[in-house]
Design goal:
With about 80 residues, this protein is mainly alpha-helical. Helix 1 crosses helix 4 and helix 3 packs across helix 4.
Length: about 80
């Protein structure tokens, strides 16, 4: 999303990644998060208040919602 210039999606996905890490009670996503480019540009583009909202929206997403956002349309069972 960052590379495509989709700043809103990048921030939602960052929130989703943080939410998944919280739910799993692991640090399994640290490697992925540390490999991402900085979200500073995205925050600057959308503004601090909107960035906080987008990250919070991402944290609240369900796994199926996250998968749909990244383009996965297969079957997913919890």
């Amino acid at each position: 999303a960052i590379l495509q210039g989709d700043h809103e999606k990048a921030l939602r996905l960052a929130g989703a990644a943080a939410g998944l890490q919280d739910v799993s009670e692991t640090r399994m996503l640290d490697f992925v998060v540390n490999q991402l480019g900085s979200l500073e540009d995205s925050i600057t583009v959308v503004g601090d208040e909107e960035a906080e909202k987008l990250i919070a929206d991402g944290r609240a997403m369900s796994v199926p919602e996250i998968l749909a956002m990244v383009g996965y349309h297969g079957r997913f069972d919890l």
